[in-house]
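Reading a protein record of the kind used here takes only a little practice. The integers have meaning only within a learned vocabulary of local backbone shapes. With that in mind, consider the following protein and its fold in token form:
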Amino acid sequence: MKKIIFGVLSALGIFVTASAFASMSSDTTNMYSMMGSNNMGSMTAMCQTMMNSVPEDVIIKATGQVVKVGKESKITLLVLDKKTNKPLANADVVLHIEEGAPMASMNKMTMMDMMERMSKAENIGSGKYLVKFTPTDKGYYTMHTHVIPAGKSMMSMMNNHMDIGIIAK
């Protein structure tokens, strides 16, 4: 788990570094402000673009998205290979759950804050992955789900992202 999170942080750090150097000539935003401040600028735009994309390599199906406040809930994800429609048994499924609509809290946190809150879904076999979640309040939650298929680089998680809605009653 720690290796996955460290790898994701490293991959995103490299991506952010490359993006920062590419935009330095036209934008006064420096690397520190992208990673550490609440002014996310181009990072927010990148995340918005990613959110509006369909996963490139996978199909993600979810069950159990209506949950009870204060009770540990189990959400099951089925991850399929998009080309073969067969279950992906050895993928890494990394996620972050936030209260509210997608990216609603983006202006309140840095990229590092977001990465620290990521967790890994439990592989329960046959392309199924288990997410345990205990909502604290009634309302809508967004589960930002990223899949890294076996044999693909960490950066593939950016191309295999899907937001899944959760309703807490």
User: Anything to note?
Assistant: The chain has one domain: 2-168. Helices lie at 2-23, 31-36, 42-51, 111-116, 156-159. DSSP finds five helices and nine strands in the chain. The mean pLDDT is 74.
